[in-house]
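The protein record minuted underneath.
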Amino acid sequence: MNFNLGLDSSDPEESRHRRLLYRSRDAAALPLIVQHADALAEVSSDDEFEVGLKALLTGFRALIQNPDITHD
């Protein structure tokens, strides 16, 4: 499955822009994004999509299995 968003992780300029983008996020709201900005900047868009989708599905599974979990 290929969902390429046109990001070229081998392009140093693209990596630099992505690193700045991830570092500029709100660290209180997205601490893992900010903390791992350097690693995320080097990930291909296909891998980024797959990791994000798996994280989302894992969260849904946790909510389904533990309906008493509450979030603000």
Summary: The chain has a mean pLDDT of 82.
